[in-house]
Amino acid sequence: MKRRMVIASLLAGSLAVASVGAATAHECVISSRSAQGDAGATHSSRWITLTLADVLGFIHTEIPGQADMPLTPAQIEWAVANRGDLPSSWVTRGDKTIGAGSANPNIADGRGLDHLAALVGPQVGALYFAALAH
Description:
With 134 residues, this protein is an alpha+beta fold. It contains five helices and four strands, in the order αβαβααββα. The longest helix has 18 residues, at 116-133.
């Protein structure tokens, strides 16, 4: 019985992780931009820094069935410290969704303009569930 509960929980978690992205889907990043380029972009009021801690603070609202399961500050701190190769922040456009409605085939290819959810959504979702269990 206990084994079935664990398996069911893991399955539910993996399905939920696969659907992460609605909130971060409008967050666009320039994958090919250097750290120096990101630093320069933040001098503009149009580009903002979105931290992993920020994302972990709201990601529960975007994972089906987790709306009432926010991470505590201690869980977020643990997750950021144990993020593996995930960056601690991203520079995103803060005033609009760039590339929205574009037919450009080079968008979302991991080399230029990309949606944050497509790049790291599953990893952030998995980190959320690991922190929730911590």
